[in-house]
Specification:
The structure is a homodimer. The relative contact order of chain A is 0.09. The longest helix of chain A is centred in the middle third of the chain and has 24 residues. The first copy, chain A, is elongated. The termini of chain A are far apart. Chain A has two domains: about 60 residues, Arc Repressor Mutant, subunit A, CATH 1.10.10; about 120 residues. Helices cover about 65% and strands about 0% of the residues of chain A. The first copy, chain A, is an all-alpha fold. At the A-B interface, α6, α7, α8, α9 and α10 of A face α6, α7, α8, α9 and α10 of B. Chain A binds a DNA duplex (30 and 30 nucleotides) through α3.
Chain lengths: ~220, ~220
DNA sequence: TTGCTTGTTGATCATCTGATCAACTGAAAC
DNA sequence: GTTTCAGTTGATCAGATGATCAACAAGCAA
């Protein structure tokens, strides 16, 4: 007799829907939003027709995938912690970016976000607008309020953000070797960023000539 | 009489192939590598069947697109300029990244590179390996050789690189507003980066407590 | 004009893809 | 056991897609 218990053919609608969405997140992350319903069904272990009992169309299914992947990724507590001036600024920055990275540095999030971005989904712009207003702007204000730093402009904040997010892009989009533990790299970026904004920097902080200036900076004299 | 001169129906093979590749670069950048040969043909102003006179398959056509977009984008003179120690380090960095940005911050390059990366093309990994070995590593060596800086590790170089490249990602992938002239933002990133690596940084460079350390950095004490 | 070469086209094929539907089936209710 | 309801399936449709091919036509030589 066969001891292996096969999954029951009939499932609660809740459970079946869950199973399909979970498989869809994984599948579309891998092959892109152009993946076929047939391949997805096979991977989910159901027939293709069944998908249309739970979702009215492929677009509807993708909607559920987006919701699953993006909804609730931005923890509102982060904002409170960013603002908590009892904690040293540096620690707040490092802590926030470690948490942020832990939230979005997954195969599914990174890739679906990028596929959706290329496809022109409005969702991405909404999300990044949110990041700018609710996360980067507060971070910037906190840095500006800290006496030890020159106030960075938003472009500087995006540069810090991009340098960190690029870790996830290297790993999950380009599939290049990247640190397993991104913590040290994040701390390094934050440390360099703050040190780069430090007030009254020593004149010879970098090589001779140009003075270090935060953010907007002057033109670099073209060579010769 | 109709003064408008229509394009001749018959073209030199060279010219026709050129016309198709040019249209293909633009088309696939927009819709992704899954775009159809019919839509492409319509956009190029030729029939779909004609594509197969110039390319044996869609994959073959995509090969030509990749070649067109990626080949020769990395100017070998950059390496010489990076190494030219007669020029101040800061100027070399700014100059290089301005040139690099001018080379790759185009709708076509950015998007095709990202589509190809998501699709798992080996091409991307080759290209970025090249960037790491021929560009970032020399930059790192030059910074290390400059007396005014602590030597950054490769992760720090990737963070600088990512912060700058993310400008192009914001603009061409996510289609968010971004500076038209990326020059100042690049100078700002370079300036902050170098200042962040400056030797013997003042102890209160950033907020109280942790010492600024370049690159690998220590753990951040978790709150409470 | 005639004939040849070759760039170009419309039609067509086999397959794939999103979507639909009648029929089947397992489990709970009676 | 029988009935009933709802989850599931195989078959199928219409349109899209990569690829092919015989036929057409523009330029050139004789």
């Amino acid at each position: 007799m066969d001891g292996t218990l096969r999954p029951p053919r009939r499932l609660e609608p809740e459970a079946r829907r869950e199973q399909i969405v979970a498989a869809a997140v994984c599948y579309f992350a891998e092959v892109g939003l152009g993946g076929t319903t047939r391949d997805l069904a096979q991977r989910a272990g159901v027939t293709q027709a069944l998908l249309y009992r739970y979702f009215s169309s492929k677009a509807d299914l993708l909607e559920a995938v987006f919701e699953r992947v993006f909804l609730g990724r931005l923890d509102p507590r982060w904002i409170a912690e960013i603002r908590d001036r009892r904690v040293p600024l540096r620690d707040r920055l490092c802590r926030f970016y470690r948490q942020y990275a832990a939230a979005i540095f997954t195969y599914e999030w990174m890739r679906i976000f990028m596929w959706a971005g290329l496809a022109g989904e409005a969702l991405n712009r909404r999300y990044l607008g949110h990041v700018a207003e609710r996360l980067l702007a507060p971070l910037r204000e906190e840095i500006a309020a800290d006496g030890s730093c020159q106030a960075p402009d938003m472009e500087a904040m995006w540069a810090l953000h991009g340098g960190i997010v690029y870790l996830g892009i290297r790993r999950f989009i380009y599939q290049l070797p990247a640190p397993d533990d991104v913590g040290p790299a994040i701390d390094g970026s934050v440390n360099r960023f703050l040190a780069g904004l430090a007030v009254s920097p020593s004149a010879e902080a970098s090589s001779r000539g140009a003075r270090p200036s935060a953010g907007r900076s002057g033109r670099v004299p073209s060579r010769r």
